[in-house]
Specification:
The chain is α/β, with parallel strands linked by helices and about 400 residues long. It contains 14 helices and 18 strands. The chain binds alpha-D-galactopyranose (GLA).
Length: about 400
């Protein structure tokens, strides 16, 4: 392009500099993983310490048979309690009774079914359940995981008194890199050390809060806190509002649909935390949980390649909100959230969603129905503790 005579040369070079400087994310010490929020399953929410080879194998099979794999779920992650000791050589030892065939054979089993395998450790001296932690053994552990075929590691923060989180998690990043195997680094220090500031250059996801529990209040508390850190999320590095509780029995179907819709719009990792074997049952509860966890239209919002975390765009008393997420095709996903315990009507204002133009098409992502073309807003009845989720596409 020939410089236009009326643009001073220094301005032109400035423009060129800005245009050619790589975006911030490309400057990060990126491992190239988790370009969209990781999807999978983690044992903790439902099974706590009751983990075993058998559970992992059956869960892997259920992930395939239930349609979860087809819907995009990939990682099968064993949380705390799989480890019992360190050998004389410093290597971590898996519980020989619960994991008799060892972790490598288990990882093979998962891989042979087209899925990925994850483990849990702790940056401190012990895990939260008192098992051996990785402190001082980061490099040894990274090499062991790589040898076993691990693809994802959640690193907790119990028993870490006096340690510097940013420094300790960076050690894992380096150790994983040196191991020669691609492993997602899931940082779990509960938002105690502002991980949204250093998480993006250190790991692929970081917890924003303490542990979720299977109650509506917990979903709302975590939502409000995680929402503040939207600017830190993007391809390869995500805020983690914790694993899903969908299907664990403590909330109503409306609450679970809202929970899933909100995690989708937050661009949160979608790690199922229920008993996947239960999804295969031929009953109403199983059908409902399966319908929520495998809703492809909602998952597509979460997995959108732009990787933007959605934000609160409207907030009306009593406790009525609209959350919106920009998608790569220029449309917006919106969650009309009724936090209150009475039914209500919520109106999503297209201007507030960032939609320009005279009208927009609306599709309901739970009912799987095109609702038509609307001028400036869309109004829906929303059940108590519930959500309506729509995709709004500018018409013409
Ligand atoms: C912490 C983490 C949980 C889980 C448990 C395991 O509480 O935040 O997600 O990993 O430890 O002990």
């Amino acid at each position: 392009m020939k410089p236009r005579p009326w643009i001073p040369a220094f301005l032109l070079s400035l423009t060129l500099l800005v245009a050619t400087t790589p975006p911030v994310s490309a400057q990060r010490s990126d491992n190239g993983l988790a370009r969209t929020p990781p999807m999978g399953w983690n044992s903790w929410n439902h099974f706590a310490c009751d983990v075993s080879s058998r559970l992992v194998r059956e869960t892997t099979d259920a992930m395939v048979a239930s349609g979860m794999k087809d819907a995009g779920y990939r990682y099968v992650v064993i949380d705390d309690c799989w480890q019992v000791a360190r050998g004389a050589d410093g290597r971590i030892v898996a519980d020989p009774e619960r994991f008799p065939e060892g972790m490598q054979a288990l990882a093979d089993y998962v891989h042979e079914r087209g899925l990925l395998f994850g483990l849990y450790t702790d940056a401190g001296r012990q895990t939260c359940q008192g098992r051996p932690g990785s402190y001082g053994y980061e490099a040894v552990d990274a090499r062991t995981y790589a040898e076993w075929g691990v693809d994802y590691v959640k690193v907790d923060w119990c028993h870490s008194e006096g340690l510097d989180a940013r420094e300790r998690y960076a050690l894992f990043r380096e150790a994983f890199r040196d191991s020669g195997r691609d492993m997602v680094l899931s940082i779990c220090e509960w938002g105690n050390n502002e991980p949204w500031l250093w998480g993006p250059e250190t790991g692929n996801l970081w917890r924003t809060t303490g542990d979720i529990f299977d109650r509506w209040e917990s979903v709302l508390t975590i939502l409000d806190r995680t929402a503040q850190y939207w600017a830190s999320a993007g391809p390869g590095h995500w805020n983690d509002p914790d694993m899903l509780e969908v299907g664990n029995g403590g909330m109503s179907d409306d609450e679970y649909r809202a929970h899933f819709s909100l995690w989708a719009v937050l661009a949160a990792p979608l790690m199922a935390g229920n008993d996947l074997r239960g999804l295969l049952a031929d009953d109403e509860a199983a059908r409902s949980t399966r319908g929520i966890l495998t809703n492809r239209e909602v998952i597509a919002v979460n997995q959108d390649s732009l990787g933007v975390q959605g934000r609160l765009v409207q907030n009306y008393p009593p406790e009525l909100q609209v959350w919106a997420k920009l998608l790569s095709d220029g449309s917006r996903a919106a969650v009309l959230l009724n936090r209150a315990s009475v039914p209500s009507t919520i109106t999503a204002d297209f201007g507030r969603l960032g939609i320009r133009g005279d009208s927009a098409r609306v599709r309901d992502l739970w009912v799987h129905e095109d609702k038509g073309t609307f001028g400036e807003r869309y109004e829906a009845a929303v059940p108590p503790h519930g959500a309506v989720m729509i995709r709004v596409t500018p018409a013409g």
